[in-house]
């Protein structure tokens, strides 16, 4: 039987890319239930090939015992496009088809959106605090200007 190709998705992170891999399905059934490759082989090896504009680099072989798993490729150049292809093999089965290339650009820093959300949140909190203080002031709980009548003191 030929293994593969696995399903691969990649996303950007600061100076890295996150690779999510879903093992290919098997065609073997036991008692009517489709067996996963983990059910059959228990442990599978996977190789990730990383390609950038000027080089192709095969990373060291890793093992998995999960159907769906993620790995992070770090120490990449920011703002550079990287592509990955994954091939899955088993100790008893070296016949496999690599995944199609999937590409993403390594981020320069954490996404800009996070910064904007933090600033907007701080502005909202400040406005809420100002509104609460204004209400307390109007209700007379803080900064009382009028003195209380002598009978209430």
Automatic annotation (TrEMBL):
Family matches, as SUPFAM superfamilies: Fibronectin type III
Gene3D superfamilies linked to this entry: Immunoglobulins
Residues covered by the Interferon/interleukin receptor domain: 2-105
A GO MF term: interleukin-22 receptor activity
Classification via InterPro entries: FN3_sf (IPR036116), Ig-like_fold (IPR013783), Interferon/interleukin_rcp_dom (IPR015373), Type-II_Cytokine-TF_Rcpt (IPR050650)
One GO cellular component, as annotated: plasma membrane
PANTHER family in the record: INTERFERON ALPHA_BETA RECEPTOR 2, INTERFERON/INTERLEUKIN RECEPTOR
Name of the protein in question: INAR2 protein
Organism from which the protein derives: Ptilonorhynchus violaceus
Gene, per the UniProt record: Ifnar2
